[in-house]
Automatic annotation (TrEMBL):
GO molecular function: dynein intermediate chain binding; dynein light intermediate chain binding; minus-end-directed microtubule motor activity
Gene3D superfamilies hit by this protein: P-loop containing nucleotide triphosphate hydrolases
One GO-annotated biological process of the protein: microtubule-based movement
Pfam families, per the entry: Dynein_heavy
Protein name (record): Dynein heavy chain region D6 P-loop domain-containing protein
Domain spans labelled Dynein heavy chain region D6 P-loop: 22-91
InterPro entries noted in UniProt: DHC, Dynein_heavy_D6_P-loop, P-loop_NTPase
Source organism per UniProt: Eleutherodactylus coqui (Puerto Rican coqui)
GO cellular component: dynein complex
Organism superkingdom: Eukaryota
């Protein structure tokens, strides 16, 4: 769904499975912040180490390109690290129709920021 959304926006997107090495994920994120591309990290809840380092990685680039977006697929849980909660716009998705509507609303919100 995120990949389809990126395509409609003519945005390059890199999808990282959670099995992707953390040090490589950091490089991909830094490059995406410079280029203004999108990154989707799937099932990040399965990697506490990567979740905990996201805030540091995002702060490492002082002026990311305005088109940069980081998408995280995460299963809701009580112990999500503060950096994940602090640096994100939370979206809850359910059915395909709800997902599409939610993404459209998120895009409008991001355009206002």
């Amino acid at each position: 769904l995120i990949e389809d959304f990126a395509e409609t926006k003519n945005q390059k997107i890199t999808v990282l499975p959670i099995t992707f090495p953390e040090y490589k994920a950091k490089d991909v994120l830094i490059q995406a912040m410079s280029e203004g591309s999108w990154v989707l990290i799937e099932n990040i809840h399965n990697s506490d180490k990567l979740m905990m380092s996201l805030g540091e990685i995002l702060k490492s680039k002082k002026n990311p390109d305005k088109n940069f977006r980081l998408w995280l697929s995460v299963q809701a849980r009580e112990d999500l690290p503060p950096p994940v909660l602090h640096y994100t716009v939370k979206t809850i998705v359910d059915t395909p129709l709800v997902k599409k509507t939610t993404l459209m609303e998120h895009d409008k919100l991001c355009a206002q920021i």
